């Protein structure tokens, strides 16, 4: 469980962001960037998947399979749960697509820039 401490903390932050009531969200768009919420979804799951690589590698489980699979599973599940339990927030297919794009980008980033190096110290 200690291995998964950082991803679990990050997942808690994701859940907080997804389930905060809509009236508590900022009303002014950040820097007037179109679809800023999709950029946020991308970033949240990019980091989450990246954080999962280390524990799975240390457990000698293929991180290229388990990290993205769990990230995608949780991305989909959280979007569904958000629709079910939140009266002021809704699920969105494009949010899931942004989540999935973040996961894919995380795998590519890990493979190109981190794999094969002394990367355990980075996380």
Strand content range: under 5%
**Topology as a string of helices (H) and strands (E):** HHHH
Helix content: 55-70%
Mean pLDDT: 87
Main sheet overview: none
Q: What is the overall number of helices?
A: 4
Termini gap: 16 Å
What's the alpha carbon Rg, rounded to whole Å?
15 Å
Residue stretches low in confidence (pLDDT < 50, at least 5 long) are none
- Structural class determined from secondary elements: mainly alpha
What is the strand tally? 0
Overall, the morphology is: globular
Task: Kindly describe this structure.
It is a single chain. The protein is mostly helical and 123 residues long. The chain is built from 4 helices and no strands. It is globular.
Short descriptors:
123 residues, mainly alpha, 4 helices, globular
């Amino acid at each position: 469980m200690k291995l998964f401490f950082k991803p679990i903390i990050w997942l808690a932050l994701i859940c907080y962001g997804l389930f905060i009531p809509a009236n508590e969200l900022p009303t002014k768009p950040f820097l007037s960037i179109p679809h800023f919420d999709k950029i946020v979804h991308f970033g949240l799951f990019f980091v989450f998947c990246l954080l999962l690589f280390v524990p799975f590698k240390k457990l000698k489980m293929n991180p290229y399979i388990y990290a993205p699979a769990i990230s995608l599973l949780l991305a989909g599940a959280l979007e569904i749960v958000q629709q079910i339990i939140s009266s002021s927030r809704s699920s969105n297919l494009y949010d899931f697509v942004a989540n999935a794009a973040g996961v894919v980008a995380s795998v590519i980033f890990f493979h190109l820039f981190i794999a094969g190096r002394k990367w355990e110290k980075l996380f």
